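Quick one, tokens below:
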């Protein structure tokens, strides 16, 4: 007898077997405090209302960590939903259906599943959370020498802003109070950061030569605390084990990621089918709701005559209005042309002065632009104290490699930031002058109004 050949599995069967593993790996790769059950994603796939609140809380916890804010599970659900909508709009999420969801979290689990998947793909949600929540055994600082450019996802998204927020009329004194409060908090933060740097310098200086790694040469704050209190190593070991399990889940997720996106394609297809079904039902209701004119009503002829007269009157008024608009437009064009000729001589000197300032600004930045382009730094770097080199006593070690190329001195970073600060200061001054000239032009057009500068 011939042996029966084993049947090959269909792609749908393979995807069905790999989907639970992909969803489970995705959930385990999330932080422990914001780790959903895999069944939550499956319920959201069918738009179950029981999964809506869980998804709102999940997005709230994840986005709070991305934006560096504190959060608790006891926060009011309406505040959580408001924050999630604002954060999604900030990142450029453009589905208006999500912003129409109710503020009590009673519906919309499938829309939230789409938003969660969009964050995973668009802003590399898992990578950001892993980088932000990793266990730091060394002393680190954040360094950024990148240009301040608005991401493409945040351009042309003004019309997608949620409907909540400040009212149309805002008191200027309230804005001034907010500005003063922000300045005070910024100065307090700067003073605290300076105090932290002094303490770090003392620890690095006093423990210099004690580390077994000759590249580092000194202890970090965490290592110094372990030397003073050895019993704390158990807590650090638990954190490291939890992070290791999370990284293993992330590697498993990267292998099974295509299965998840195929599953999300089926979710989108189901939503499109349901949308088409709802449109067809609405069209059927509209057709069935319109009564058929099987017989002539006795008042139909009089009503038709009135409609015809109104239509003729509206046509006449439209023609008259069009002629009036054309006449007014021609008159305004003549006035504008005359005014432009008068202002052309006056505006020439102002335009020349503006061009000269712009050229000076570009010439000042020409040296930095023509210089060989350096690799921009962005992210966290480990602080390493260098006592053997008096020119650069403190350095930034960007990676674990022992090559000296990976180290950047703090003086070099400070010099780059100072150049960037000077460039931004000149640009701010130019914008302030332009704004002042516009305000002067507006004030000249106001009759019987006195403008007093602050």
């Amino acid at each position: 007898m011939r042996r029966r050949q084993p049947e090959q599995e269909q792609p749908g069967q393979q995807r069905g077997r790999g989907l639970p593993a992909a969803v489970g790996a995705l959930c385990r790769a999330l932080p422990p405090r914001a780790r959903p059950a895999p069944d939550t994603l499956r319920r959201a796939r069918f738009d179950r209302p029981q999964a809506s609140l869980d998804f709102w809380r999940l997005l709230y916890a994840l986005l709070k960590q991305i934006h560096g804010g504190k959060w608790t599970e006891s926060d009011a659900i309406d505040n959580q939903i408001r924050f999630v909508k604002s954060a999604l709009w900030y990142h450029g999420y453009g589905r208006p259906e999500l912003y129409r969801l109710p503020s009590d979290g009673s519906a919309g689990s499938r829309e939230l599943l789409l938003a969660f998947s969009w964050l995973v793909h668009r802003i590399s949600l898992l990578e950001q959370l892993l980088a932000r929540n990793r266990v730091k055994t060394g002393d680190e600082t954040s360094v950024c020498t990148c240009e301040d450019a608005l991401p493409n996802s945040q351009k042309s998204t003004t019309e997608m802003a949620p409907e909540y927020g400040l009212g149309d009329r805002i008191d200027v004194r309230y804005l001034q109070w907010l500005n003063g409060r922000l300045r005070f908090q910024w100065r307090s933060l700067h003073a605290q950061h300076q105090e932290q740097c002094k303490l770090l310098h003392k620890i690095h200086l006093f423990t210099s030569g004690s580390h077994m790694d000759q590249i580092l040469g000194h202890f970090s704050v965490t290592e110094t605390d372990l030397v003073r209190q050895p019993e704390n190593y158990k807590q650090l070991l638990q954190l490291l084990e939890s992070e290791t399990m999370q990284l293993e889940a992330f590697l498993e997720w990267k292998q099974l990621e295509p299965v998840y996106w195929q599953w999300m394609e089926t979710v989108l297809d189901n939503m499109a089918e349901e949308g088409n079904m709802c449109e067809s039902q609405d069209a059927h209701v509209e057709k069935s709701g319109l009564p058929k004119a099987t017989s002539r009503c006795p008042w139909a002829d009089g009503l038709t005559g009135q409609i015809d007269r109104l239509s003729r009157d509206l046509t006449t008024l439209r023609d008259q209005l069009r002629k009036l608009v054309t006449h007014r437009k021609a008159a305004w064009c003549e006035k504008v042309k005359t005014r432009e000729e008068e202002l052309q001589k006056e505006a020439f000197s102002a335009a020349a002065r503006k061009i000269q300032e712009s050229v000076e600004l570009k010439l000042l930045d020409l040296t930095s632009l023509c210089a060989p382009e350096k690799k921009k730094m962005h992210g966290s770097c480990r602080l390493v104290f260098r006592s053997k080199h008096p020119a650069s006593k403190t350095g930034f070690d960007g990676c674990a490699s022992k090559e000296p190329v990976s180290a950047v001195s703090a003086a070099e970073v400070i010099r780059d930031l100072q150049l960037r600060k000077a460039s931004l200061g000149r640009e701010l001054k130019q914008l302030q002058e332009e704004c002042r000239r516009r305000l002067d032009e507006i004030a000249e057009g106001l009759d019987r109004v006195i403008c007093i500068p602050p």
